Amino acid sequence: MPELVRQWPSELAHIVKHLHGLAGRQGCYAAEVDLSEDEMRALNLFQASARHEHVMINDPDTSEECYAYLNTPVGLGPPKEREGCIGRVRISLTDVHPH
Predict the structure, then answer these.
(1) Which residues of 71-94 are buried (b: 16+ CB within 10 A; e: fewer)?
(2) What is the pTM of this model?
(3) How many domains would you assign to the chain?
């Protein structure tokens, strides 16, 4: 049976633009972003549905479709930059590779 791949939610597309590769860790990307209540809910629902499955994103540098594993988001406290947000979250992806 083929593996189910979850498409990154459109309401969270702006997060992908903030992803950057982690030095010394090939195939690992991360971002720290401020999220609204609706975005936080969407991220939590997506993470729960994609647990142990690949997700599909567009590479922020090349726009190429990639597969990755979404790690559990980590809460970092209050928002720092975006008005109307309720918290700051670290998002990380591992095993990022071209589709």
Answers:
(1) eebeeeeebeeeeebebbbebbbe
(2) 0.86
(3) 1
